[in-house]
Amino acid sequence: MYPDRVVSGMRPTGSLHLGHYHGALKNWIRLQAEQPCLFFVADWHALTTHYDDPSIIEKAAWEMMVDWLAAGVDPSQATLFIQSRVPEHAELHLLLSMATPLGWLERVPAYRDRVDNLAPHEQATYGFLGYPLLQAADVLVYRASAVPVGEDQLPHVEMMREIARRFNYLYGKEPGFEQKAQDAVKKLGSKRARLYNELRTQYQQNGDDEALAQAKAMLDEAGSLSMIDRERLFGYLEGSRKLILVEPQAQLTATARLPGLDGGKMSKSGGNAIGLREDKAGVTQKVRTMPTDPARVRRTDPGEPARCPVWQFHQVYSDTPTQEWAARGCRSAGIGCLECKQPVIDAIVAELEPMQERAQPYLDDPSLVRAIVADGVDTARKLAQETMRDVREAMGLDYT
Ligand code: ATP
Ligand code: MG
C-alpha cells in the first residue's frame, strides 16, 4: 500500500567508528540500491545527552555526512538530510506523545540504564525519556518499512511498532468501517469467507501469528476483490481499521554488535573505538595494545580465543584459514598475541584506506556536502508533509 522505504539515522556526537560501519552503514549501502532510502543526521537526538554543550554538534554533523559518503552511501540513490531541518518530525513526536503511556518509555532499557548510572551532577531529563518516541516519529513520518540499525536499537524499533499500531487503532477510524468490512467479507465467496472469519478469530483471540499470515496469504490470492476491499480486510484482520502509519522492521547486519577494544560494545562515548578516519599508525597502535585472554601472561602460556576480544575481530575480518591459524596458535601457544593481531590490523587498514581516499574531495570542497543536504531536506520534507496531512486529518486537526 505504501512504498517500501528505509529510514535510519546517527547522532552527531563524535567521530564514526567501525561499529557504525559494520552494524549499520553496510546495510544502508546494500539497501540504497534496492529501495528508497532516507538517512539523517540526528541532531536533536544529540541534544538529549549534549544539551549543556551543543557546540560540537554542527561540526560532528558535517563530518559524519562526509564519513557516510566515504563509506559508500550514494547521494544519487539515497536521500541524506538533517533531522532538525524537517520540523514534521517534531510535530509527529508531539502528537504521538499525547497517547503514549509513560510506562512504555520508562521501561526502555537505555533509559533505565541512564537513570541507574547518573553521575552526581547529571539529571534525568524529559528529552532523554522521550527520545525513543522521537525516534518513532523519525521513522513513522516516512511510513518506512525497514530500519537498518545495530542490535542496541532493537527495543526502540519494537516500540515504534507498538506506537504505530496504537495510532492506527485510535485514529484509523473510517465511518461505518465495521459494516463495510463485513460486506467485503461476503465478496470473498462463502468458502473463503468462512476461512477468513475463522483465521481472524484465531488471531484476535489467541494472537496466533500463523493464522494472521495465512489469512493475509489468502487475501493476496483472492482475485475477486477491489483494492479498497482488500485493504479493508487486511485492516479488519488486525483490529485496526485503516493503516495511517506503517509498522517498521529492524534490519540487522551479520555484525549487529561490534565489540570495542575492551570487548564491550564499541561506542563513541566508551573510549574503545577505532575511528573510520584512523590512519595506519593509529590502528596499529590501538590493536597492538588491546587486551587479550588474561590467561596468556607469557608468550608460552596457551590461551582460549573465546576469552579474547581480538578473536571477535578475527571473526569479522579474517577468512577461515586465518581464523584456524589464530585459534590453533592461541590454544597451543604456537603464536604470540602480537603475531595474532597482525592480520586484523592489516584488514582494518585495508578497509579504511579507500574510505579515506573517497572522503578527500568532500573535505576539499565542503560546498558539495551542503548541496547534497539541501536537496535531501527538500525531498524528505515533501514526504513527511504527505504523512502529516493524513495524521492531522485522522486526529481531527484538519481545519480546511
Ligand atoms: P553513543 O555512545 O553516543 O551512543 P554510538 O557509538 O552508540 O554513540 P549511535 O549514534 O548511538 O552511536 O549509533 C548509530 C548507529 O550505529 C545505530 O544504528 C547503532 O546501533 C549503530 N552502532 C553503534 N555502535 C555499534 C556497534 N559497536 N556495533 C554495531 N552497531 C553499532
Ligand atoms: Mg548509541
From TrEMBL:
Signal peptide coordinates: none
Catalytic reaction(s) noted: tRNA(Trp) + L-tryptophan + ATP = L-tryptophyl-tRNA(Trp) + AMP + diphosphate + H(+)
Arranged from A to Z, the UniProt key words for this protein are: Aminoacyl-tRNA synthetase, ATP-binding, Ligase, Nucleotide-binding, Protein biosynthesis
Q: Matching SUPFAM superfamilies, A to Z?
A: Nucleotidylyl transferase
Superkingdom per UniProt = Bacteria
Q: Which Enzyme Commission numbers does its entry carry?
A: 6.1.1.2
List GO terms (cellular component aspect): cytosol
Query: Could you give a single Gene Ontology term from the biological process aspect?
Result: tryptophanyl-tRNA aminoacylation
Keyword Calcium listed? The answer is no
Enumerate the GO terms in the molecular function aspect: ATP binding; tryptophan-tRNA ligase activity
**ATP-binding found in the keyword field:** yes
UniProt cross-references to InterPro entries, sorted A to Z: aa-tRNA-synth_I_CS, aa-tRNA-synth_Ic, Rossmann-like_a/b/a_fold, Trp-tRNA-ligase, Trp-tRNA_synthetase
User: Which family is annotated?
Assistant: Belongs to the class-I aminoacyl-tRNA synthetase family.
PANTHER family per the record? TRYPTOPHAN--TRNA LIGASE, MITOCHONDRIAL
**NCBIfam families in the cross-refs:** PRK12283.1, trpS
Q: What is this protein called?
A: Tryptophan--tRNA ligase
The uppermost taxa in this organism's lineage are:
Bacteria, Pseudomonadati, Pseudomonadota, Betaproteobacteria, Burkholderiales
